[in-house]
Amino acid sequence: MSRPSDRCPGVFSAHPAADGHLARIRLPGGLITPAQVLALVGVSDGFGDGHFELTSRGNVQVRGITDIDGAGELILDAGLIPSPSHERVRNLQLSALTGRRGGLLDARPVLAEFDRRLQSDAALAKLPARILFGVDDGRGDILTQGPDIGVLAIDDQSFDVVVGGKPTGRQVTAADAPAVMIDLAHAFLADRNDEWRVPDLAGRAAIDGVLAGLPVTDEYSRSQPGAEPRVGWLAQDDENLVALGSVVPHGRIPARVGEFLAAIERDIYLTPRKEILIVDLSEGMADTVLRVMAPMGLIFDENSPWTRITDCTGSPGCDKSHTDVRGDLDRHLGAVDVAIDDREHWVGCERGCGSPHEDHIRVEATPTGYTRRRL
């Protein structure tokens, strides 16, 4: 029996939607440089619908693409796909602001080395595009995303190994963490039949074999899953620098806003909560960014409902949706005395595209209206 096809979109396997092709671009750790932002402006303005969208895995996608080859050429030239064979499996999440604000250690070198090893390993190009890797610096923000394979810092030199979204109680040093994660990725392929994710595996003999060779630790219990608010003025550990966190309605960045983001000439990190983090700003620069970007639609207010509410594309972009989800949500938020006290995700059908990986309330459209349920 042949394995079901993996339809998770990439750039070279763009998804045909009702509004044109959709291309998804993986951003390891959510990092995107000013030059790469400008390249996305060119793709979205020249070949797409004039926006680029944030995803629930800290990646970006462009909808409405009319020329896949032309868009792909710009994306390649920007260095956004350093390994075409591995483009869809580079689902690599990293604690936001690690090395800059909070956390037990700077986890960036661990993720960078893992990415290097992943791209150089031909066999791992066969991983399913839905698998998720994560490196958590101890604050718990990536653990809440349920990575299939990852590590969670327990002090400034070591990690607990995470498998299937849960700490295993097996310890690894920061230096050895990338190699162990690679070993676990190979073990997943050995254990896999048709499963897309580790929790779906019928058996985990190979994975358990890798874990059995690692020392035991009980330190992981000290780490509490969660994430601080990352919208607004965020002082970095270097007292001379700050980061600015923002969100945008529907997680859609207009090309014109992207041009101004690129002009700041600072790296940007995109989080699974669809936050936009502009880092390494002086206080004067941060003040200027706030004054320029807020009127253009970036939201820096941590009390805004857009920090707690997301949605799928809905119609007319998706022909499976029962309704215009974005329009319905805009009208809902425009009503008087609407309070959004919990995380909500609005969807146009039962598939629940773009749903957060954390606990949330799903507001789901049906042929007769919306239903609400906690997931």
Task: Give the arrangement of secondary structure elements.
Elements: E1 15-17, E2 20-25, E3 31-32, H1 34-46, E4 51-54, E5 60-65, H2 68-77, E6 92-94, H3 108-119, E7 133-136, E8 149-153, E9 158-163, E10 166-173, H4 177-191, H5 205-212, E11 232-235, E12 242-246, E13 252-254, H6 255-263, E14 268-270, E15 276-281, H7 283-293, E16 309-311, H8 325-333, E17 344-347, E18 361-366, E19 369-374
Provide a descriptive summary of the structure in words.
The chain is of the alpha+beta class and 375 residues long. Helices cover 23% and strands 23% of the residues. The chain has a 5-stranded antiparallel sheet with strand order 1-2-5-4-13. Strands 3-14-15-12-11 form a 5-stranded antiparallel sheet. It has a 5-stranded mixed sheet with strand order 6-7-8-9-10, with helices on one face. Strand 1 (15-17) and strand 2 (20-25) form a beta hairpin. Helix 1 runs antiparallel to helix 2, helix 1 packs antiparallel against helix 6 (255-263) and helix 4 (177-191) packs antiparallel against helix 5. 45% of the residues are buried.
